[in-house]
Amino acid sequence: MATIKDVARRANVSVTTVSATINGTAPVSDALKARVWAAIREVGYQPDPIARNLRKGVSTTIGLIVPDISIPWAAHLAKSMQRAFSEIGYNMLFASSEDDPEREFSEIEVFSAHRVAGLVVVPTSRGENYSARLVEGIHVPTVLVDRVLPQRHFDSVTDDNLLGAQMIVRYLHKLGHRDIAFMAGRTGISSSDERLAGFRRTMDETGVAIREELVRQPVYLRDQAYATVQQLMTLRDPPTAIVCINIAQLLGTMAGLGNLGLSAPDDVSVISFDGFHPAEGWSPAITSLKQDIATTSTRAAELLMARIREENQPEPQVIRVPPSLQIRSSCRAVA
Amino acid sequence: MATIKDVARRANVSVTTVSATINGTAPVSDALKARVWAAIREVGYQPDPIARNLRKGVSTTIGLIVPDISIPWAAHLAKSMQRAFSEIGYNMLFASSEDDPEREFSEIEVFSAHRVAGLVVVPTSRGENYSARLVEGIHVPTVLVDRVLPQRHFDSVTDDNLLGAQMIVRYLHKLGHRDIAFMAGRTGISSSDERLAGFRRTMDETGVAIREELVRQPVYLRDQAYATVQQLMTLRDPPTAIVCINIAQLLGTMAGLGNLGLSAPDDVSVISFDGFHPAEGWSPAITSLKQDIATTSTRAAELLMARIREENQPEPQVIRVPPSLQIRSSCRAVA
DNA sequence: ATAGCGACGCGAAACGTTTCGTCAAACAGG
DNA sequence: CCTGTTTGACGAAACGTTTCGCGTCGCTAT
Questions:
Q1: Is B26 within 7 A of strand C by CB distance?
Q2: In this protein, which residues make up the domain named HTH lacI-type (chains A, B) (predicted)?
C-alpha cells in the first residue's frame, strides 16, 4: 500500500525523481538512484498498475480469447501462452467465446476497455462481414491463432495443415488405403479448409481418385460425427480409413463406431489431426498428428511483443508450425 | 473513446450529474436523467474501467488461479467459472500456479496489485506455513475450490469426497471385491486426504479389512502411478480392483497396465474419482464419479459475490457438492 | 412569515502514476 | 570570459473517473 509519495518523502527527493529512477525515463545521478532504491525497499513500494495504466493509456495485460477452453487443445494453448507471457511480465485476461461471433466481439470490446496491451484470439471466423467487423473492433496489437483469415490484417500462427494432411494421406496410402473418408468442418474456417485442401492435393499427388461420397462436410460437432460415421460405415462400399480433423470429430467417430459394434483398426482405420486424446492405456491408441503448441505459443508471443514494442510494423505475417506424425495402433495395412 | 466530459458537455450538465445518473449514487431529476442517457447514447460513451478502478480502489475483475489448466477438470472449471462471472458483469484474470506454492503466492500478489474484486483459488496447499502465508497474502474476498484448508479462513467449495468414496467402495464391494488398491495423493491435500479417509471408513463399515500394502501414497504424478500399478499387479496376491483419485493417476494406471499386458476389467477392475476421461468409443470405458462442476462454479460465484457485496460476513463456510457414480465397463464382478 | 429540511445540481479534490516544461548548475568550446 | 549545451532535479498538469462538501431551490411545519 506504499505509494510513490512515501518513497519520495523517505528518500528526500521529488516524486518525479522516483518515477524517473524506476522507469529510467530521465537521467538521475547515481547517488540519488541509490537513495531512491533503498527507500523503495524500505517502504516496500510496488507501483500501482492501475494508476500506471490510466496515465499511460495501456496496460501490461494481454487478452486471450478461445472458442472453448474445455477443449484440450485450447487448454494446452492457454497454459503455454500464460507461461510465455508471464515470463516477460505480462498477465492474462481470459475469456471464452463459446464459438459465438457475437460473444467474441463483445469480449474484444471488454478487453479493449480494459486497455489490454495485446490480444491473442482463436477467431470464430463466422458470420456476416466477419473479417471487417474484426478489423473494425480491434485497435490493439493482435495475433490470430489456429485459424487465419483470407484478408491478412493480423499476424497469425497456425499449424502447417497442408503438411499435416500430406503426412496423413501418405501414411494411409503406404498402408494400402484407397477408400479414405474425410470429415471436414465448416467451410470458411481455415484450419478445416486447409486440411481438406491438403487432403485433396495429396490424394491427387498419389494418383488416387477421391470418392466424393466419403468426403463429408460440415461435421464439427461430436454428434454429427457420431451420425456421419454410421452413415459411412453402412455404405455398400465403406471406407477403409477415416480422417478426423479435431477432437470433437474423433470422440464422435469412436463412439459411433462402438455403437455399430465396430472397432479400429480391425474394421476401419482411424487417424486424427488433433493429438490431444488418450494415447496410452486405452484401446485403440489413436495414430494422430501432434501439434507443437509450445512453438505456436512462443511464436505468437514473439509476434505480439514485436508489435507492442513497435519495433517495426511490417506486413502481417503468417507463421505455420509443422506438426509431427505419431504412429500408434489405430491404423492397419490393407490389401 | 468518448469520455464522461463529452457526455456532460452534450447534455449540458455537470460531470458530477452524469456520474450520478450512471451510478445512481445521488438523486437526479427525471428530466436530466433522460437528457444524460440520450447524450450517452449519442456520443457512444462507455465508462473507462481503469479510471473507475483507480478511483474506487477495486475493479470488476476476479482472478482465477489453478494448478494446471491443461488438466481437463481445471479447464472445465475455468470455463464454468468464466461463464458464471461474465453473466454478472465480471471478467477473469487467469493464472496457473504450476502446482508451485511460490508461483501461487506471486500470482496472488500480482492479482492483488491489479485490484481484483475477488479471487478463486485451487490452492496448492503445500509448503511451510502455507495457510498462514495465504491468509497473510490475501486481502480480498476469496473462495477456495477443490481443496479445503484445516483452518477455516476462507469460504470453500469442494466435492463431497466422503460420499464419493462411499459410492465407490460400496459399488466395488457389491461386485465382490475385497482386495482393493487405493492410490492416495500427497498428504495434506484435502481432496486426497478426504478420499482416503472415506475409503478407510467405508471399508470399515462394510467389514472388510484393508490390506495396507495395497494402499500407496503418495502417488500424484502419472509416472508414479505407472510404476505403482506395476508393483501392485506383480504382488503375490494382487488387488482385484484399483481406485484412482485423479486423472494423472488414471492415465498412469492405464498405461502401466498396458505395459504389463494386462487390461481392465479382465485382469483388474479400475475405478476413478475423476470423471474427465474418454468415456465412449475407447476401451475400457472407465467407471467413475462425475463431478458436478457447474454447481461447484455457481456456488463458488455465489459465495464470492456475497463477500464482495459485503451483504454480510458470516463465518467462512465449506460447501460440499455431491458427485454421482457413472457405471461403465471398467469394473467386473469377482467371485 | 420564516426556520428547517429534502431534493437537486455543481465545482473541486482525490485516486497514484507519468510526463511536460522549467530551471539551476556544471561543463564545453571559442 | 562569455555563450551554448548537457545534466540533474523538480513542480505541476494530466489520465477519467467518483465523491465530498457546498449552494440553491421549493416545500412543509411552526
A1: yes
A2: 2-56
Q: In the complex, which nucleotide's C1' lies nearest to the CA atom of residue A54?
A: D15
A32 touches strand D (CB under 7 A): yes
pLDDT digits (tens, 9 = 90+) for A92-139: 999 999 999 999 999 999 999 889 999 999 999 998 899 999 999 999
The CATH architecture that domain A61-159+293-322 belongs to is 3-Layer(aba) Sandwich (3.40)
Give CATH 3.40.50.2300 domain extents, chain A. Answer: 61-159+293-322, 161-291
Q: Do A282 and B284 touch (CB under 8 A)?
A: yes
Range list of H helices, chain B = 4-11, 15-23, 30-43, 49-56, 72-86, 101-113, 130-137, 161-174, 190-206, 222-233, 247-260, 293-308
Rounded Cα distance between A270 and A285, Å, is: 10
- Report the share of chain B in percent with pLDDT over 70: 99
Q: Is the CB of B47 under 7 A from strand D?
A: yes
**Superfamily designation of domain B161-291:** Response regulator (3.40.50.2300)
Calculate the average pLDDT of chain B. Answer: 94
A32-45 pLDDT tens trace: 999 999 999 999 99
Q: How far is the CA of B28 from the C1' of D28 (A)?
A: 22
- Taking the CA of residue A76 and the nearest CA in chain B, the distance in Å comes to 5
What average pLDDT does the segment A84-88 reach? 90
Q: Please check whether strand C approaches the CB of A49 to within 7 Å.
A: no
Global pTM reads 0.92
What are the chain A neighbours of B267 within 8 Å (beta carbons)?
none
Ranges for all domains in chain A classified under CATH 1.10.260.40: 4-47
8 Å CB contact of B115 and A50: yes
Contact A68 B51 (CB under 8 A): no
Distance in Å from D20's C1' to B19's CA comes to: 14
Test A114 with B253 for CB contact under 8 angstroms.
no
Per DSSP, the residues of B235-301 read SSS--SEEEE-SHHHHHHHHHHHHHHT--TTTT-EEEES---S--SSSBSPPEEEE--HHHHHHHHH
B4-47 — its CATH code? Answer: 1.10.260.40
Instruction: Answer whether any strand C atom is within 7 A of the Cβ of B50.
Output: no
With a cut of 70, say whether residue A251 has pLDDT above it: yes
For residue B139, what are the contacts with CB-CB under 8 A and spacing of at least 6? B112
